[in-house]
Amino acid sequence: MRGQLIAVATAVVLAGLESASAEASSSVRLISLFADLPESVRADIEPDDGNCHIEERRLAYGDAFEVTQEKGMRLIIVPCGPAGAYNMPSAIYGGQGSQISRTVFPLKFSETTGDTGFNIRYDAMERRFTSFVKGRGMGDCGSYYAWRVAEPENTDFLVLEEVRIKEGCDARADGGPATWPLVWKRQ
Question: How would you write the chain as a 3-class SS string?
Answer without folding.
Answer: CHHHHHHHHHHHHHHCHHHCCHHHHCCEEECCCHHHCCHHHHHHHCCCCCCCCCCHHHHHHCCCEEEECHHHEEEEEEECCCCCCCCCEEEEEEEECCEEEECCEECHHHCCEECCEECCEEECCCCEEEEEEECCCCCCCEEEEEEEECCCCCCCCEEEEEEEEECCCCCCCCCCHHHCCEEEECC
